Amino acid sequence: MIFLELFLTFLKIGAFTFGGGYAMLPMIRSEIAARGWLSTDELIDFIAVSESTPGPFAVNIATLIGMRTGGVPGAACATLGVALPSFLIILLVARVYRTFRQSRLVAGVMDGLKPAVVGLIAAALLSLGQTVFLPGGFHGEVFLSAAFYVSLFIFAGAMVLAFKKLHPIAVIALSAAAGVAAGYIFHF
Question: What is the pTM of this model?
């Protein structure tokens, strides 16, 4: 039963979110929380691993969640579920694109999806950022925590490096190294 649930959950996520893996995060978080498959902290860890592993983010996170929930068969079901809608949609789009590429309706749909995708990514950023920077909620003691300042420093450093066009692999590696070093120094 868990295998069918994993497949159908990730099929729904894959079918009803547009804009890539990060746009899927609000729906992934909602679905995972509703089923009690992962805690928010575990989901953030899975996001970090999925981002730093080769391959598409959505496939990586579906595979990790499926593996955690149902072992290898669960990983296969979740991965197939999240990838199948995109595969079928791309087949359909490739088949009819030449006919409809000049359509005002198609252009309007694409123009409408762009800001929605940015909004979904921003919502995921704010939601996950709250968990990373304010795990116990917002209160004055947050600013006394070394973990808050270390996280803020790593975030700022990663942003600067990304805007300076440092390769994403280098940004991930440096951020991971800074997190490990901070963990040893401050004993998080």
Answer: 0.61
Cβ neighbour number for residue 152 with a 10 Å cutoff: 12
* H or E segment and range at residue 32: helix 21-35
The answer to whether 13 touches 31, Cβ cutoff 8 Å, is yes
How do the domains of the chain map onto residue ranges? Answer: 2-133, 137-188
What CA–CA distance (Å, rounded) separates 53 from 167?
A: 15
Q: Measure CA of the first residue to CA of the last residue in the chain; give whole Å.
A: 38
In tens, the pLDDT along 40-65 reads: 889 988 988 888 888 888 899 999 99
164-187 tens-digit pLDDT: 998 988 888 898 899 889 888 887
Cα-based distances in Å from 116 to 18, 24, 58, 83, 120: 9, 12, 18, 21, 6
Contact 65/38 with Cβ under 8 angstroms? Answer: yes
Handedness of CA 31, 33, 38, 43 (dihedral sign): positive
Nearest-angstrom CA–CA distance, 21 and 23: 5
On whether the CB atoms of residues 157 and 178 are closer than 8 A, the answer is yes
Cα 53 from Cα 62, distance rounded (Å): 13
